[in-house]
Specification:
Blueprint: H1 2-27, H2 31-87, H3 92-104, H4 106-119, H5 122-134, H6 136-145, H7 148-183, H8 185-190, H9 194-246, H10 259-301, H11 306-309, E1 312-313, E2 320-331, E3 335-346, E4 350-354, H12 361-369, E5 378-381, E6 387-390, E7 399-400, H13 401-406, H14 414-423, H15 427-432, E8 440-441, H16 450-463, E9 468-472, H17 480-495, E10 499-503, H18 507-512, E11 515-520, E12 523-529
Parallel strand pairs: 1-5, 4-10, 4-11, 6-9, 9-10
Antiparallel strand pairs: 2-3, 2-5, 7-8, 11-12
The structure holds adenosine-5'-triphosphate.
């Protein structure tokens, strides 16, 4: 801001020197020697101004980058605090859009508009004082026209803000729409719905195009309004100076106008409006930043479930890993889906949970993991509670096999990774791949079969040191061979001394448990040791 203010003052100084130079040249007093000091002064100020402008731009960019980094970190922390279950109400593509695009939209505001807003009064005020010193009537003319510009800008800006808000909602919807169609491309083709989906995507994209053009139209309109008013104001001042110099204005300070003062006022008049013009250029940035911050604030206003984060500590944690005491779980609009339930999980236990579909098995695992906070009751955990999670659709990221394995063991070397893959029955496959561990896979394990993806997830659990392994229907819809490999893998984990909690319908997995918990309608029906 300081650099911007000084750069503005340097511009004013440059114009004063320019008016002086022209005055000296035209009046031809003093010869070439009299021109030099003016010229040198102009060149010096030109260099100073350039340096100050660069410094201003760099500082603004750094400030904006810091702000965006902070907001992104805050949004990520908030998403983590909301937890995986609450996040299911958002579309991944919309969240990604908010995290990338909406935070990016703050850049123009932070780096340009915010600075310009604070500079906008400084230079015009200095110019007004200078002009008033030369000719108070010209200063009044400038001062009268100046307020019209912010007034019209604000009027246009109000519309721009609403349009930008709609625009962000439309982009978020379009992103979600597109990602859904791409994810479901196989199903769409199977049902012959490809052409209809294409038409829908085209219609959504066209809607977005129309909205973008409407927003741009408004941006151009606001610039045009501003240009019009500043041109009219400059023209009025120019006419006044012209007639004043000709001696056609027989009243006021016009009679004292000289070549220097007339020139100076004429040169300063456009500069008087320049900060406002620059501000209007950035006004669109303000509108889109306000709309983006609305969306971000809405997301950040979602209060995380405090109970998820502050579990009570177990007293006897040498023997127990986890304990639920009278825990319940309610979902808005669904009422109670779990509990009250009491459950203790000793270290080294293998607990198999079964029961009909919808009986609350996954919900119980989510409460055990702390993905959702319990409504009533207490969740007590051991001090070293870390858990590994595996369900029917393992979370695989776009990247190499090694990247996916490193999610649970960032320090694991290739040897350890290969050993884990061998144990999960993927060794031969990975060794046959030309790029081995560096082979890329798509988001959600695209490029791997369902069974291979599950085995990769199992290898990840082998690599992790988590004492508790939570498994939610890990063998659902797999072939017999993969099922066998996974069940063997889980046996090995249990033999290592890890604690396993498995929600399953599979008889072999149920038989693995040293304890059986049968659930119905969110309640424990029986809990028996084998
Ligand atoms: N995020 C949620 N929001 C609202 N209701 C939910 C949510 N998750 C689960 N439910 C409801 O809670 C109940 C228990 O669901 P849960 O997924 O725990 O059952 P489940 O025993 O694991 O079923 P399945 O064997 O079919 O996987 C169901 O009625 C379900 O509709």
């Amino acid at each position: 801001m300081l650099c911007g203010g000084l750069a503005g003052l340097a511009t004013v100084g440059q114009l004063v020197l320019l008016a002086g130079l022209i005055d000296v040249v035209i009046r031809k007093d003093g010869g070439v020697a009299a021109v030099w000091p003016w010229l040198m002064g102009i060149l010096l100020l030109l260099g100073v101004r350039a340096l100050l402008s660069i410094a201003q731009e760099l500082a603004a960019q750094r400030g904006s980058q810091r702000l965006r980094q902070r907001v992104r970190r805050e949004v990520l922390d908030h998403l983590a605090a909301l937890g995986p279950v609450r996040l299911t109400q958002y579309h991944t593509a919309s969240l990604a859009h908010q995290w990338v695009e909406q935070v990016e939209a703050l850049d123009g505001y932070a780096a340009r508009f915010w600075v310009q807003m604070r500079l906008v009064a400084l230079v015009p005020l200095v110019i007004l004082v200078l002009v008033a010193w030369q000719d108070w009537l010209a200063a009044i003319l400038l001062a009268l026209t100046a307020p019209l510009i912010p007034l019209f800008m604000a009027l246009v800006g109000m519309g721009a803000e609403a349009l930008n808000r709609e625009q962000f909602v439309a982009v978020a919807r379009l992103s979600a729409h597109f990602v859904d169609r791409v994810r479901g491309i196989t199903t769409l083709r199977l049902f012959g719905a490809g052409p209809r989906a294409t038409v829908e995507v085209v219609a959504a994209a066209d809607d977005y195009r129309r909205r973008s053009l409407r927003t741009l139209r408004l941006a151009f309109l606001s610039s045009a309004v501003l240009e019009f008013f500043s041109s009219v104001a400059i023209a009025v001042v120019a006419i006044y100076i012209g007639f004043g110099l000709l001696g056609d204005i027989p009243f006021g300070p016009a009679q004292d106008l000289t070549l220097f003062s007339g020139l100076l006022i004429l040169l300063l008049a456009p500069e008087f409006f320049q900060p406002l013009r620059t501000l209007s250029l950035f006004y669109h940035d303000r509108a889109s930043a306000l709309a983006a911050s609305d969306g971000l604030c809405e997301l950040l206003a979602e209060t995380p479930d405090e109970r998820r984060h502050v579990p009570d500590r177990l007293v006897d944690d040498a023997h127990l890993l986890l304990s639920l005491q009278g825990v319940t779980l309610d979902h808005s609009g669904r009422g109670r889906v779990l509990g009250p339930i009491d459950l203790v999980i000793p270290r080294g236990d293998v607990l198999a949970i079964s029961g009909p579909s919808g009986s609350g098995k996954s919900s119980l695992l989510q409460v055990l993991a702390g993905f959702v906070g319990a409504g009533e009751g207490r969740r007590l955990v051991a001090h070293d509670l870390a858990f590994a999670w595996m369900d029917q659709r393992p979370l695989l990221i776009h990247g190499s096999l090694a990247d996916n394995l490193a999610l649970t063991a960032p320090d694991a070397d290739d040897c350890r990774m290969m050993a884990a893959l061998e144990r999960a029955g993927l060794g031969a496959l990975v060794r046959a791949l030309p790029e081995g561990l560096e082979t890329s896979i798509g988001e959600g394990g695209r490029g791997l079969s369902g069974g291979q993806a599950q085995r990769l997830a199992l290898a990840r659990i082998f690599l992790s040191n988590a004492p508790l392994v939570l498994l939610d229907e890990p063998t659902a819809s797999l072939d017999a061979v993969t099922e066998g490999i996974l069940i063997e893998g889980f046996r090995e984990l249990a033999a290592e001394g890890r604690t396993l909690v498995i929600a399953t319908h599979h008889p072999a997995l149920m038989a693995m448990g040293n304890r059986q918990l049968i659930m119905d309608a969110g309640r424990e029906v029986t809990c028996a040791n084998q």
